[in-house]
Amino acid sequence: MNMVSPILNRGELSRQARVAQGLGSPFVAAVLEAGQRQLHRAPHTAALIEQWPRDPSSSALAMRFNAALHALARQGALPALRALYLRQHDDYDGAIGAALAAQDGFVAAFMRGTPQTNEVGRAAAIAAALMVARADFGLPFELLELGSSCGLNLNLARYGYTLGGVAAGTTDSPVQIAPQWLGPPPILAPIAVARARGSDLNPLYADDDATRDRLLAFVWADQPRRAARLEQALALARRYPPHIDQADAVAWLGDRLAAPQQAGLCRVIFHSMVLQYLTDDERQVVEETIAGAGARATRERPLARISFEWTPSRDEVQLCLTLWPTGEKRMLATCHAYGDWIDWRGWRN
Asked: How far apart are CA 348 and CA 278, in angstroms?
């Protein structure tokens, strides 16, 4: 485990406020700035942040804090905080300071839980990568997702996409995703999924009210279209429940890749914003497990890996695709962290 000196965590909310501003969320940036100023009113939360044992950025510590406040605002028990989130006033320090003083225990407990964004917008990038794999192999997919949360992206074949003016996926789906597209148009190919399965240490379920509330709390409050799209994806998941195993992702991946692969299916491992929550040793095991499966791949039983992750320096989100049996790897695009835009480079860049 990467240990971090407590002193390095001081000012983390302000640092991440600048990130939120850069990602197009001035409201969340203001919440985090006020949270930093008012943190002294919540000693349990302040101690949790200062003593966090891993890198606070890769642990999404500020996003946990923001989601905890959003959850409180959605509950409505703190009128000033709720009114702030409804944009009925702009006294950030007053509302957030009072909320931290009144609900220090709630905020700290909420932050200890693993982030549950399950961002549906990222499905557009994953779908674009799948179309590259389909054009290469001409086969339908068996999807295996690491860190599935509620499994909403396991339903990606049921969503509709507009990618650089190109319509893809299920065009009449209630879930439509249209990121800003930069670069050449994508390869257009069917997104045919024969089966999809994921894993999560603590799976969430779309028919559970607490799941809905937690996922919506992680959506930034000044991005209502994201919230509406999430609601639609949850409704679709209630009709078509994703298959999620409650399991450690590293062990689960080894078991699934050791299982026989049906000829005529392209097995696809995909993950989005998951690797940052693994230890260095766990990431190494994941890499070795996938490489071993790739070495066994054939044209009749090919393997693909789609990765939507921050770079180690956390200065860029990259969409990468690796195809076996050749083992060829390409960075297909750089992306907004929540999929709002995709800067596409393509397979033959």
From this structure: 31
- The model's confidence at residue 307, banded by pLDDT at 50, 70 and 90, is very high
Q: CB of 157 within 8 A of CB of 193?
A: yes
Convert the pLDDT of each residue in 269-303 to its tens digit: 999 999 988 999 999 999 999 999 999 999 999 99
Instruction: Note the pLDDT tens digit of each residue in 142-158.
Output: 999 999 999 999 999 99
Distances (CA, A) of 97 to 94, 127, 342: 5, 42, 37
**β-strands 176-177, 266-272: how paired?**
unpaired
Going by C-alpha positions, the residue among 23, 18, 286, 260 that lies closest to residue 146 is 286
3-state secondary structure of 54: coil
Counting other chains too, the contacts that 225-232 makes at CB distance below 8 Å and 24 or more residues apart are: 226/119, 226/121, 226/338, 229/120, 229/121, 229/175, 229/176, 229/177, 230/118, 230/120, 230/152, 232/174, 232/175
**CA–CA dist 12, 169 (Å, integer):** 40
Average pLDDT, the chain: 93
Query: Please, are residues 323 and 302 in contact by the beta-carbon 8 Å criterion?
Result: yes
Q: Residue 15: exposed, middle, or buried by beta-carbon count in 10 A (0-12, 13-18, 19+)?
A: middle
Instruction: For residue 27, give both structure tokens.
Output: 């409201």
Residues 185-239 have pLDDT tens digits of 999 999 999 999 999 988 989 999 988 899 999 999 998 999 999 999 999 999 9
